[in-house]
Design brief:
This protein folds into six domains: 181 residues, Jelly Rolls; 172 residues, Sandwich (Jelly Rolls), CATH 2.60.120; 34 residues, no CATH class; 132 residues, Galactose-binding domain-like (Jelly Rolls); 79 residues, no CATH class; 81 residues, Immunoglobulin-like (Sandwich), CATH 2.60.40.3080. Helices cover 3% and strands 43% of the residues. It contains three helices and 51 strands. The strands form twelve sheets. Strands 1, 2, 3, 4, 6, 7, 9 and 12 form an eight-stranded antiparallel β-sheet that branches. Strands 15, 16, 17, 19, 21, 22, 24 and 27 form an eight-stranded antiparallel β-sheet that branches. Strands 30-35-31-34-32-33 form a six-stranded antiparallel β-sheet, with no helix packed on it. The longest helix has 12 residues. The radius of gyration is 31 Å and the shape is globular.
Amino acid sequence: MKRYYIFLLFILSGHLINGQICVGEAGSVHWQAWQNLFDNELGELYAEENFPVRPDVKQKIYKLQSPINYDNFLGGRISGFITVGQTDDVQFNLTGDDVTRFYLSTSESPDDLVLQAYADGYTNIEEHDKYPEQTSGLINMVAGQYYYFEMIYMEGYGGDHISLYWKTINDNPTEWRLVNGNFIADVDCLPAACPERGTPCDDGDSATSDDKEDGFCNCVGEAVPVGTCVGEREFINMYAYDSIPGGDLNDLYTHPDFPAMPDRSKTLHYLSEPFSTEVDSVGHMIQSFLTVPVTGNYRFNITGNNECIFFLSSDELIENKQAHQILVSGATDPTEHDKYIWQSTSNIYLEKGKYYYCEVNHKESSYSEHFAIFWQTPFTQADTWKRIPEFYIYDYDCEVACIPEGNMCDDGDPFTNNDQYDAYCNCVGTPCEPANCNDPIASYSSYPKCDLTDQIDNRSDVGWLSCQESASPNPLRSNSHWIMYDFGQEFVMRQSHVWNYNDAVNFDQGFEQVAIDYSLDGANWTELNLYNWNLSDGSSDYSGFIGPDFDGAVARYVLITSLDTGQPCRGFGKLLINAELCSNAGTTCDDGNPFTINDVIDPYCNCVGTNTAFNDCVVDTLSLGDTLIVMEVHSAIELVESQNTIDSAGFVMYISGDEIDLNPGFETLLGSNFEAMIELCDGSAQDEEDNDELSKKRKDIDILKVLSVPDTDRQIIQFYLEDPGQVQIEILNPKGEKVFELLNIDFINKGIYQKNLRTKKFDPGIYQVVYKSKKGTEVERLTVM
């Protein structure tokens, strides 16, 4: 997916909301900055809810140049007035890093701003001719007239700055000079600032409690909900479902673990997941309640990669969640708001004091796992999409999702090992002594000043620096800066820790966009993944960061390649990998194939098992269509026919008693595991008695079954779909009230499916599982002890 910067849509979006300003103190202006933005796209600054009225940092400056190298993921703004001593034709030049804009009004009013110069890539501070767009045309400016201006820039990693230069026909037409304090004035007559978010207040409603200011001059209290599902205030919980191939929401919806058994969870501060390429083939779900501080019209917008949908109920009830919905049906950049006509709602009238159930479903295949929900409100900048913060969100407290006990996780504590989810869905680890902790950083202890140590300080001679790109050992990589480690023999590799280049001055020369490959022989390479790494801080006691998990990959060689551009040199500090010699042949393992047993390590350190799949001889003919298939066995008495795609991470078998037809369109993606075999059903002589037995077998197949996994709280809900179509599965409590909806989608293929469920969050009692399809309704009991 191509990423780009949007600038024409936002020409007027940076200036003050009400435009009621006047010329202030002469000789200086203010630099403002908004920190910890999601990415270095210019749209991220406009999506920041506090832009442009409440910066994180504000500093008086006496020339039109920002502080240099202030922070990463920062958006900056300088605004004020420019004047000239005599009427003149003026030309402006803009430099900066990374993305820059210069707007100049034709008057004192922000309403007359015009984009005069810009750059979508970085320049050095005095690099005036890198892009033709960074220089304006000639502008006639009248002596004594004040012209309102704005300079805006976005920074990702590395250096950051913005500067405005000019040439005048009457003064110095050949030399670019910084615009200094003799020609600038600050902005005044600004409205009074709103109280800080969280300041106690009184909203005037005796029925609410815990009244707080929202930062936009709105006092908001907690209203009494109608139902029992409204949970913790200012809390957004996102569940993640890992290793689900495909980029369609249907791939998420049909997976056995969605929605009740996620792999992990994450607390968010916005209804957004930032741009990141750390994980592929992942799905996400958020269930929450939205509140508003002002009654009025609201609009909503969604972005993401690959498919994502936002549901907003007309009230507190989850049953009405489809009242409003918006969708990304392919992929968008994080702030690309208008790629699809169904990304945005029209005006929706929402009332203060009410709770509105909302839900986000997201499915990513590859590249970035980002998604975001934005809104336009009566109290924020007009016609500008803003991210929705946690302040207006309440948790959904009626969920039954519970992460499987024993799933690995990271509790955030380097001094614990074997972090995993417990019986109550919490991520906990076992305390460890520093020398025995899996996180390498735990074994590094503090040391007296000037003592010898393995820590990295900020001397230039302790790191590795490449200033000449060269041919890579991996022929699939182009010439680049790279470093290859040869460990002398094969190891099973686990978690790593990384120290980036840490020169006190040139720490921005570290690796940022990184590819990691590994190899057994130094000639044939396997890509581990692509990463975005943080630069070091240039400190004398730099401790690095937790690096990639090699997840048991067997290798002798590790190749780290910089994919960065823009710097002639790139450097690296140190790599530490937890590793062990290859396990002995015959050691038990798990090959990841659900259709095998007796998995053991072979002499080549590969985990292999014995296949146990068989023909269940239930249907005569099975037509599978053309959907993506991930991890299934499909069998038939006579014929299996398919136009499907077998996913790259899939384990799929077709078994037929007579014929398997792989029709045009059938495809096995690189990395998939696919097997087709002929296996006769018992009684293939086809005498009348055997035919009767097979017919009885097909007739007696259970449409719905609830299976308990012994000694756990796990339940498997298995259903047989005789014909493709709509399927709905609900769980009713002992009072007959719906407490959870496991499924409500269209299935393209018939067959046997299942949904996994943990009942840890259920009260003890007898529940009902209700299955609805076009064939009718089936009900089974689910007992919770």
